[in-house]
Specification:
- By secondary structure, the protein is α+β, with helices and mostly antiparallel strands.
- Among the domains are: about 115-145 and about 350-390, no CATH class; about 155-335, Rossmann fold, CATH 3.40.50.410.
- Helices cover about 25% and strands about 20% of the residues.
- The chain contains eight helices and 15 strands.
- The protein has helices at about 5-25, 165-180, 210-215, 230-240, 265-270, 285-290, 295-310, 325-335, and strands at about 55-60, 100-105, 110-120, 130-135, 140, 145, 155-160, 190-195, 200-205, 245-250, 275-280, 340-345, 355-360, 380-385, 390.
- Helix 4 (about 230-240) runs parallel beside helix 5 (about 265-270) and helix 5 (about 265-270) packs parallel to helix 7.
């Protein structure tokens, strides 16, 4: 007999046993995501949790009570009470409190985060609810929810890391590492890079070393494309479920090369988002020191970043010197931690899917424009930063 044929059944059996053993071990790799699906029996994972809004209890269809023939015998001692002589009622059966209930969200509340800053970008924190007037398409609204005070921030760092020009790569890394200096222990930070497509390097974490570890992965760029519009849509879609003092810090050139989305489509997504975007340009530094004849492209990129920031209630930064970054990042962090939160229910309850323009004004008790003085008695010039509007839900 051929020796190979002799041991063939044994080899097949060993292979089957090996496959069964491998299948019994869970995979060791986990792809991070902004909103991971959890098993209902597991504890919720740490991280920024979404608000649930207003909820209404809706009972599911009641299950019929078990018939006397299928009821389990009681283990309690016999009672000496006389049996009841009441007859069965013909009234509809009431809802049993032990029935399972489902949750459905019903709320028309619109949240608007507002920052009031002086000419140097420092937040002003001495205002109260009575100092805010909010207009929806020119119609004044009643502010029902109001909050202020310092709170942790939730920031997604969106970093352009494309193989287009090596000075951009160097600046992108320097600017990103500098942001670590303003992170507090209670802040949540995620890291996403992009070239041809976005890639999550670090999911939301409060560990600064994990954020640094995500940045340490940015060493070898893969593609020459800088698909900014697609990357912004990717990040904003995952920031929808995060509430509180949140923002996207975009360390980018502002130049898009090959996105599936057009600029107009990107702006529509940006306008519909409630996440402020803080672009930090890596073009301005190089344009001043080494002009390459692409001034028109630079101006277009600058205009793009300013528009995106304005629509979302953020602010664009164009540092010409690296020494400007610490102050810029400190200003961004202060604005996020010390902003005002306004909420209102629109008087126009029509769900038409239209874009509604928002306007926030600062007034005194008589409704006149508020005048603010500093400690020296001089008037303080200030500006209000809030998102440009919102899309009404469509019925």
């Amino acid at each position: 007999m051929n020796p190979k044929k002799k041991y063939l059944p044994v080899m097949i059996m060993a292979g089957v046993v090996g496959l069964l053993l491998l299948a019994s071990f869970p995979p060791r790799w986990v792809v991070p995501s902004f909103a991971q699906t959890q098993d209902p029996g597991q504890q919720p994972s740490p991280g920024p949790q979404p608000d649930v809004g207003e909820t209404v209890l809706v009972p599911k269809k009641s299950q019929p009570s078990p018939s006397p023939s299928t009821a389990q015998p009681s283990t309690a001692q016999p009672s000496t009470a006389q049996p009841s002589t009441a007859q069965p009622s013909d009234k509809p059966m009431k809802i049993n409190p032990s029935d399972v209930y489902s949750l459905s969200t019903t709320t028309n509340l619109v949240n608007v985060d507002v920052m009031v800053v002086d000419n140097e970008g420092n937040p002003l924190q001495s205002l109260d609810k009575k100092n805010f007037q909010l207009f929806d398409d020119g119609v004044q609204q009643s502010v029902t929810n109001f909050g202020t005070g310092e709170a942790p921030m939730t920031v997604c760092m969106l970093i352009e890391f494309a193989n287009r020009w090596w000075p951009y790569l160097v600046l992108a890394l320097r600017y990103s590492y500098d942001f670590l200096n303003v992170i507090h222990p209670k802040d949540w930070v995620a890291v996403v890079s992009f070239d041809l497509k976005p890639q999550i390097l670090t999911d939301f974490t409060q560990d600064r070393m994990e954020v640094r570890a995500g940045l340490d992965q940015l060493r070898m760029p893969g593609f020459m494309e800088s698909n900014l519009y697609d990357a912004l849509a990717f990040v904003l879609d995952r920031m929808k479920e995060v509430h509180g003092r949140k923002a996207v810090l975009a360390v980018v050139t502002g130049i898009d090369t090959f996105s599936k989305l057009t600029y107009d489509q990107c702006l529509k997504i940006v306008k519909a988002s409630d996440t402020p975007i803080y672009p930090v340009s890596i073009v301005e530094f190089m344009a001043v020191r080494n002009p390459r004849g692409d001034n028109i492209t630079t101006l277009q990129a600058e205009n793009c970043l300013k528009t995106i920031a304005q629509y979302t209630g953020g602010q664009a930064y164009f540092p010409r010197f690296e020494q400007e970054l610490p102050a810029d990042y400190q200003q961004i962090a202060e604005q996020l931690r010390k902003q005002y939160s306004l909420g209102f229910v629109p008087t126009n309850a029509t769900h038409d899917g239209r874009y509604h323009k928002l306007k926030v004004e600062i007034v005194d008790e008589q409704g006149n424009p508020l005048t603010i003085f500093n400690q020296k008695g001089k008037k303080v010039k200030y500006k209000v930063i809030a998102r440009d509007g919102y899309y009404s839900p469509k019925t």
